[in-house]
Design goal:
Blueprint lengths: L9 E12 L6 H15 L9 E4 L7 H9 L5 E3 L7 H14 L5 E8 L15 H4 L8 H15 L3 H15 L13 H6 L2 E3 L2 E2 L8 E10 H4 L7 E10 L15 H12 L8 E4 L4 H10 L8 H4 L18 H4 L7 H13 L12 E8 L4 E8 L5
Parallel strand pairs: 2-3, 2-4, 9-10
Antiparallel strand pairs: 1-7, 1-8, 4-7, 5-6, 8-11, 10-11
Length: about 375
């Protein structure tokens, strides 16, 4: 089965989020369950119709087993591949493969976390501690600060350019009633915010929130018979060079340089055809690195690319229109929320932030500390 043969073979027919921001009193699994039930309902299906389950969480050692038990499912196929926040873009590919192979007929992809109200802090379990613990880093912030410092030294990227990413995210968040961080934000406020790990201030770092998301996929030939407007899987690609930041071959180049072209090739679309770009912005440097590595600008030009509101509302390129992990939501693993926003935009359900004529979206997930990278392309029926 070739990659090209997977183009348009599955579609997201149900999508939902739950507990966005703060959801006191709910466990991670309860929030996941709320999103899953709402996504199944959005698809016009019943829970008993779900026979494929794909899950990754930061709070369950065996996530699919926990999901199946909690929701009372009896799947024929299940997978709990966990490569960090990019897991869910990869799950879209895995679910499409399982559907096309006839291993399941309706696949649920789901995630939930109560990280904020459970008292969680911005930490990561993704680092091999024997590499870095002796140096006293603060995971994962120190790793991203290292990448930002190297990019600044090598290409002249400035803290003011990093701040442009945060300002753009807040601009989009102010158009999104579900965004957790809304309100005015100035460049001076970003630059003068408390330094967390030089050169990243508090305003350069993602939120710590609660939240859950889920989507339901079916084979494309079934999608049009269901109640929701289908959003088609067109392509995906993944790449991974390392786990620990100290083993990253080049701190200024991520594996998105490989995952992006693979996804675009499978989808048979060019970057200039994309209407929406959803990037995993756990830190402001992420957006700059991914814009470069995905080919939207040359290596080293990402800082200059985001200047003057280019990725903000009204700019040339619509990036992270929900407000991103910086201003909308970031409950530990953010990748499924990229997909949720892409689905909302392609369906035309994004309200005040809606991109006119949005037909093609790129979702790029990041796992670990710039470690696993997975890119997925979604489109409307007009793109088939």
């Amino acid at each position: 089965m070739s990659g090209a043969s997977m183009r348009g073979k599955s579609a997201i027919v149900g999508m939902a989020t739950a507990g966005m921001g703060e959801a006191p009193g709910f466990s991670a699994m309860e929030l996941l369950g709320q999103a899953a039930i709402a996504a199944v309902r959005d698809a016009g299906l019943k829970l008993q119709d779900i026979d494929g389950v794909f899950a990754a969480t930061s709070s369950h050692a065996f996530p699919t087993m926990s999901v199946v038990e909690y929701l009372g499912l009896k799947p024929r196929f299940f997978d709990s591949t966990n490569v960090g926040g990019s897991s869910f873009e990869l799950h879209l590919l895995q679910a499409t493969l399982a559907l096309e192979a006839g291993l399941c007929d309706a696949a649920l992809v789901c995630y939930g976390s109560n990280q904020r109200t459970a008292g969680g802090k911005l930490v990561s379990m993704s680092e091999p501690q024997w590499h870095e613990t002796p140096y006293g880093p603060r995971h994962p912030i120190t790793a991203y600060a290292l990448a930002a410092s190297r990019h600044m030294a090598q290409y002249g990227t400035t803290r003011e350019q990093l701040a442009e990413v945060a300002l753009a995210a807040r601009g989009w968040a102010n158009l999104n009633p579900q965004a957790f961080a809304r309100g005015p934000l100035t460049k001076e406020e970003v630059l003068s915010a408390r330094m967390i790990s030089d050169p990243l201030t508090r305003a350069d770092c993602c939120l710590v929130t609660d939240g859950a998301a889920a989507c339901v996929l079916v084979r494309a030939d079934r999608a049009k018979d269901l109640s929701a407007k289908p959003v088609y899987f067109l392509g995906a690609g993944a790449a991974n060079y390392h786990r620990s930041i100290v083993a990253m071959p080049d701190l200024t180049t991520t594996a998105a340089a490989e995952s992006g072209p693979r996804a675009l090739e499978m989808a048979k679309v060019g970057r200039d055809e994309l209407d929406l770009v959803m990037l995993y912005d756990a830190f402001t440097i992420n957006t700059i690195l991914f814009l470069e590595d995905l080919g939207f600008c040359p290596k080293g030009e990402g800082g200059r690319f985001v200047e003057d509101g280019r990725i903000a509302p009204g700019g040339e390129l619509a990036v992270n229109t929900n407000g991103g992990g910086l201003s909308c939501v970031h409950p530990g693993m953010y990748g499924l929320f990229l997909i949720a926003e892409a689905v909302a935009q392609i369906r035309g359900e994004a309200g005040e932030r809606q991109i006119e004529g949005c037909e093609l979206a790129l979702c790029h997930g990041n796992g670990g500390t710039l470690s696993s990278q997975c890119t997925a392309i979604l489109g409307s029926d007009a793109t088939l």
